[in-house]
Amino acid sequence: MTGVTDLIRDRHGSRSVDLAYAAAESAAHSAGIDIRPLDSVVDLEAVRRLYERIWRTGENNPPVTADLLRAMAKAGSYVSGAFDGDELVGACFGFFSPPAREALHSHIAGVLARVQGRNIGFALKLHQRAWAMARGVGEVCWTYDPLIRRNAYFNITKLAADPDEYLSNFYGPMDDDINRSDDTDRVLVRWRLESPAAVAACAGRLRWADAAAARAAKAAVALDVSPAGGPVAGRAGTSTVLVGVPGDVETIREHDPGLAAQWRTALRDVLGDLLAEGARVRGFDRAGWYIVDRRESQ
């Protein structure tokens, strides 16, 4: 039977935790997978190999090692896998952060490309949410590449996580086929697990964002995509601004690294400065727009 298995309920009787488990179970069932915590050496070695395939790193440069995952699982951190039958097709792990284990940092989550589109990543995050809430955790944080549209949409629209900080070249050089030679700029998001937006998102009600409506309401375009596919800086003098990103930056990195670098610098200058000023990302339009409310409008 598909679903969520082996979750430990530390807070029996909490209705919010029960609802979180129910949402996680429903998401796993819809995706046609089983999700379970992992702690055996065999399973954790399978996670290492899975991540190598996803990030195309090779055996000499894995995103994480099985022995580190084993130590994390033993210490009580979160390590889980999504199984399609007997095959591991996705995995996620994170560790606690201060204060006093009230927050979890979700470090890596990945799903095989051939099963993307089945909402397996969504199911993994809902499993993580239920696991965390059962242990008294109220917030999960992670980083993502703000130039990748599908990741921005998933984090901001589908999960209702809130961008909090722009981190320039956060991980330094990463030797894999996803990041290539690009700087590893990231946005840190905070997923407040019991916020109304997160509860709604976990029930399947997306946090929609409409860039066309924002533009009609006089939002300025602070960063746009030129007809040739390059970044075009605009103005950010209005209370709400639109920040665009290219359609497929991963393909750009592969075929035109110089253009990818231009996009990295442009987004760092625009979105990075806005977040540093205290602006709030209201949402992300799937057409490739961050909708950002500046401090003056809050």
UniProtKB/TrEMBL annotation:
Keywords: Transferase. One of its GO terms (molecular function) is transferase activity. InterPro entries: Acyl_CoA_acyltransferase, GNAT_N_AcTrfase_prd. This is GNAT family N-acetyltransferase. It comes from Nonomuraea montanisoli.
